[in-house]
Automatic annotation (TrEMBL):
Localization in the cell: Cell membrane
Topology in membrane: Multi-pass membrane protein
TM ranges: 12-42, 48-72, 84-107, 119-139, 151-172, 178-201, 293-311, 331-352, 364-380, 386-406, 418-436, 442-464
UniProt-recorded name of the protein: Uncharacterized protein
Keyword Transmembrane part of the UniProt annotation: yes
Pfam families: Polysacc_synt_3
GO CC field: plasma membrane
Family to which this protein belongs: Belongs to the polysaccharide synthase family.
The keyword Ribosomal protein is annotated on this UniProt entry: no
Keywords: Cell membrane, Membrane, Transmembrane, Transmembrane helix
Domain of life: Bacteria
């Protein structure tokens, strides 16, 4: 048992470090590519890209009916489990892609899309198929908590995609830039994952295996469906109700505002599910890890969000041809608030799923989905684009109820973990605001960031006796 715990810890640390490295690397590439794309492309074109991604996300829900998550959660996986999952998934994928292609005229006429948008739509459908082939090799690595190997594939995929889409966009290819880039990424990633974690595809369905997998998979996938209806279908609604330009502004604001979540919490949450699943019988260790996650996500996310709110308008002014995104700034500020509050929900939903309490997650997802479709249509009809982030803030307050429920299963401290990061971030915000100049250059912009980093580090150390570097290091010592 002790050796098993040490192996799990070692793999977890390596996986988390790998995921953070991949996030940092991809963030730099993504920042450069996002700047290139949002400078070169009009908000409407960017909105079309967001729209087509949402359509593919809808199809992706039906691709494995929760079988992949069941394989990760199970204590032991057999050859029948792998074969059954692969076969069922491929049958579903073929059906979905066929439906997707047949719906092309409907999608185009409904949103009045140009022909280039259809090529992007078809490219994403083909990439959707290649992505499904990666499922079993990826699951094998996830079960071993060897995310560093998955990260290597993602790094290569992101490098190929960002470089390709930037080069194509600068060449004046518009929407076709995305179409070619997603195909190149999909083919490259599939070849590489099979090289790293080879699995010979096998066809066959075991009724016994399928029944066991679906007992966890269907409730889990139901939650995924609700998340899909709550997030991606809402974007499809907004694209129709407010227009593609408005969707472009919302997509821009959402991507920038949630970038710290994507970089930090997505990586942490990605390994929390398999780790909690392996540790589900060790309540004390689960509580310790949960507290550390809450503590360190606050220490990192709180100053990042405060800094972004204070400096984003200067950033828009400084970047060439970026003034076209000024109408999205109010949306950005509000989504930052909702992103920070909702970040506290993610570790607990992973905890519920790992403990087999999928019904709890399901109930919250039902609430979020129903309220999203009540609040967002009403608020967007009365407040246009700004209604969307207002609804997100209201929904994000649910984290309070999630914490109350989680305390019934695991004894942990919440307020004690978050107040040093929040207090220090607010102090940092005051210092940055005081030193902001009316006119800005890149040098002054850099000085504002430096002011924030120094003031945040000092207040943590002087008031709370927290050395941020030691804290980051200690995150990886959870036994």
């Amino acid at each position: 048992m002790e050796n098993k715990q040490k192996t799990l810890k070692k793999n977890s640390i390596i996986s988390l470090l790998s995921l953070f490295f991949q996030s940092g690397y991809s963030a730099v590439l993504g920042l450069i590519a996002n700047l290139v794309l949002t400078i070169v492309l009009a908000p409407e074109v960017f909105g079309i890209y967001i729209l087509t991604l949402s359509i593919i996300s809808f199809l992706n829900y039906f691709s494995d009916i929760g079988l992949a998550a069941s394989l990760v959660q199970k204590d032991e996986v057999t050859g029948d489990d792998l074969r059954t999952t692969f076969t069922v998934q491929q049958l579903l994928i073929i059906i979905l892609i066929t439906i997707g292609f047949l719906l092309t005229p409907v999608v185009r006429s409904f949103y009045d899309l140009p022909s280039e948008a259809m090529y992007l739509y078809w490219a994403l459908l083909v990439a959707f198929f290649f992505s499904s082939l990666k499922t079993i090799p990826s699951i094998k690595l996830e079960r071993q908590v060897q995310f560093q190997k998955i990260v290597l594939v993602q790094i290569v995929e992101n490098t190929v995609f960002y470089i390709a889409v930037s080069v194509f966009a600068l060449s004046g290819m518009g929407l076709m830039s995305f179409a070619y880039a997603v195909l190149i990424r999909a083919i490259t990633g599939t070849i590489l994952i099979y090289y790293i974690s080879f699995w010979l595809p096998q066809i066959g369905i075991s009724k016994v295996s399928l029944k066991k997998l679906l007992s966890f998979g269907i409730p889990f996938q139901t939650n995924t469906l609700l998340a899909l209806v709550k997030d991606d279908l809402i974007l499809l609604f907004i694209g129709k109700a407010l227009g593609l330009e408005a969707l472009g502004y919302i997509g821009w604001a959402k991507r920038w505002a949630e970038s710290p979540i994507r970089m930090i919490m997505d990586n942490v949450n990605r390994i929390l599910f398999p780790i909690f699943s392996r540790m589900q019988s060790e309540q004390e260790r689960v509580a310790q890890l949960l507290e550390k996650v809450i503590r360190y996500q606050t220490l990192i996310l709180a100053p990042a969000f405060v800094g972004m709110v204070l400096l984003m308008d200067r950033f828009v002014d400084l970047v060439p041809k970026y003034s076209k995104w000024e109408p999205a700034l109010p949306i950005f500020y509000l989504i930052v608030i909702s992103a920070f509050l909702s970040s506290f929900s993610s570790p607990f939903t992973n905890l519920f799923n790992a403990l087999g309490k999928v019904k709890i997650t399901f109930k919250f997802m039902v609430y979020w989905t129903v309220m999203s479709w009540i609040l967002i249509p009403i608020l967007t009809s009365t407040n246009s684009m700004i209604g969307y982030p207002i609804a997100l803030i209201i929904l994000s307050l649910t984290f309070i109820a999630i914490i109350v429920v989680a305390k019934k299963y695991v004894a942990f401290s919440f307020i004690k973990q978050i107040y040093p990061g929040i207090f220090s971030s607010l102090f940092m915000g005051v210092m940055v605001y005081i030193t902001l100049f009316q006119t800005s250059t890149w040098i002054l912009f850099g000085l504002s960031i430096a002011t924030g980093v120094i003031s945040y580090t000092l207040i943590l150390y002087l008031v709370f006796k927290i050395n941020i570097m030691n804290e980051v290091t200690s995150f990886f010592k959870y036994d």
